[in-house]
Automatic annotation (TrEMBL):
It is found in: Cell membrane; Membrane. Belongs to the G-protein coupled receptor 1 family. It comes from the Eukaryota. Putative odorant or sperm cell receptor. Keywords: Cell membrane, G-protein coupled receptor, Membrane, Olfaction, Receptor, Sensory transduction, Transducer, Transmembrane, Transmembrane helix. Residues 43-294 form the G-protein coupled receptors family 1 profile domain. This is Olfactory receptor. The lineage of its organism: Eukaryota, Metazoa, Chordata, Craniata, Vertebrata. It is a multi-pass membrane protein. The chain crosses the membrane at residues 27-50, 62-80, 100-122, 202-224, 244-262. InterPro entries: GPCR_Rhodpsn (IPR000276), GPCR_Rhodpsn_7TM (IPR017452), Olfact_rcpt (IPR000725), OR51/52/56-like (IPR050402).
Amino acid sequence: MLASGNSSSHPVSFILLGIPGLENSQFWIAFPLGAMYVVAIVGNSAVLHIIRTDHTLHEPMYLFLAMLAFTDLVLSSSTQPKMLAILWFHAHEIEYHACLIQVFFIHAFSSVESGVLMAMALDRYVAVCFPLHHPSILTPSAVFKLEAAVMMRGLLWVSPFCFMVSRMPFCPNQVIPQSYCEHMAVLKLVCADTRVNRAYGLFVAFSVVGFDITVISISYVMILRTVLGLPSGEARLKAFGTCASHICVILAFYIPALFTFLTHRFGHHVPRVVRIVLANLYPLVPPTLNPIIYAVRTKQIRDRVIPGCCGKDP
């Protein structure tokens, strides 16, 4: 059944299939996914609480980490409750506007997460290469402005996705062969020329991710040059240690994100079940791993989680 709009018609709802090809296993697959979601919620909430209540952590690195934790909470919660409802309770139907809202939050906060990782790389660059000037360069005001710019970029760049799709007619097919509404998956149900939409999607992906990865790469090249120039091996090891957590988080986000993006558009020879499973993991793996990585690698957070557990850092 189609609902009529001013200039287009759209379905009342869509059907999300879950994980086609693994229907008999979906109930059991939901348990590890649910466990990962619980870890993501508890871990990122704990990181936010620790940074908010400990005033000694109100420094640029931890303020960016707090924004990363908030972004991870939004990103994982945009997909996981509905995904678990599909896998456990066969709640396959999603209302049309709820689907577009899900598209917006997934893509907007993926962009925000990428921007936060870029900002954290800049923070590490200034801390390692200009340690004496770090407090004067990354002041609380500068951190706030950088976080606001990252947030606004994500919200403004992604908003046209939903607006353009909402103005287009849909085919009778209302089935999305995965567990959540993603821009390309929804676009495939449109009965009109979608070249402009696809081109804009590629522009956003490459302008956001391309810019952020470029800044991150340049920052770490400069960091590497500075660290290798340090006279003491202990100083080099300590400098590398300050960046290790961030590098792990970058890999946890960009590897599944880029693989999902590329296979969804160009990986037609990749088995569909593989693409769908990886697409399901993409909004969940980084939010699950990030608080674990920072709890293990960051003494100030580790000591708050398990007080006195590890003594002094080497």
